[in-house]
Design goal:
Helix content: over 70%
Strand content: under 5%
Low-confidence stretches: 1-6
Mean pLDDT: 91
Order of helices and strands: HHHHHHHHHHHHHHHHHH
Largest sheet: none
CATH architecture: Up-down Bundle
Distance between the termini: 42 Å
Structural class: mainly alpha
CATH topology: Amino acid/polyamine transporter I
Number of domains: 1
Oligomer: single chain
Length: 450
Amino acid sequence: MTDKRFLHGQWSSRLAFILAASGSAIGLGNIWKFPYLVGENGGGAFVLVYLLCVIAIGIPIMMAETMLGRRGRQSPINTMASLAEEAGANPLWRYVGWLGVLAGFLILSYYSVIAGWSMAYIVKMAGGFMDRVSTTDTQQTFLDLKAASDIQLVWHTAFMGATLLIVSKGVSQGLERVTRIMMPGLLVMLLVLDVYAAGTEGFGQGMAFLFKPDFGKLTGESVLIAMGQAFFSLGLGMGSIMVYGSYLPDHVSISRSTAFVAAADTLVALLAGIAIFPVVFSYQLAPGMGPGLIFETLPLAFGQMPAGSLVGSLFFILIFFAAITSSIALIEPAVAWLSENRGISRPKASLYAGSICWFLGIGTLLSFNAWSNTTWFGRNFFELVDFVTADILLPTGGILVAIFASWVVKTRDSERELELGPRYVWWQVLTRFVAPIAIAIVFSHAMGVL
């Protein structure tokens, strides 16, 4: 196996990896998607199932992906090729790396557009444009933003530019430095919002909704959604965790580090719920509104409350922080591959990869206006890219990573890397059987088979 062990540098410590990997996992899915999924699926019972799925599915696969990354010490594509060769396996396994890189690349193309909305709302909130607005006003504001392709293009370009600037600086000066600042900042902002929420009239109702299980509202559909969210929330199957694992020093424990990352990811999702639901109930709003909860419902509440402009600005800065730490992880696998295989500098690799992502993102922003009625296979451009990535590429990649790590990689090698002792057999059972079967069920449901 070619030794490219220190080609791209390393994290300076376990904390650096935990912050970076947590930044990769913590994104719009935690602050935007998780709260409204809880709202749509019965509250506390859904949270409980989600936590069980994180433990049984998310953590074992995150350990597997991190282990593969550290053992390969290259981009996901080259790592999978090298490890397949080392194990004497079929060279076609390298395409698992391609699946992850492609998935992350495509996700970033539309992720940047949605993150751009959060930047637009920082300005709207800080400028007082959402003060004392009505329900109709907030809905129309969001519709106007989606209809304005030129304004979306400006914010999409600004967000992608910020992402590329960070990634171009490398591991220590770019990825690590930014996550060391932004992740603690994200947590502080969440706690400030939680303290504010604790003083609202709807705090008790919001906490009961979030944490009091009502198993009568838990359906088979809800369980499948919780399983899927547990997998996708941790950023698995898109190459990010694998490439971050490739920068992990040998002396750092993979099991303890990934457990910290999963705990941080889950904590942020719950803290976001604590910040959001009391506000929602205080103003008699619907807790299960879907994506509109963030860009329509909450601005309405912020506009009515004391210091609403400040609180609203802080909330959308929080979303931006979460989005940018995820976006740098989404593009890093492609940048690492370009640096390794094409011999170009990180700034150029970042520019090349980012330019393609930016261009694809134009298709997403046009999906909300000029191309809204243009469909492929019954979906507009954004819906098609989202379906291909979330429902096909990520589950497929996750299953194959689990199979490769637990069946193809030699047991002595994975035991040495994971250092689990007697607990290794539990990781093996979960990764060989439980996680692939669970992901396959979610995949089948998404494809309409179940």
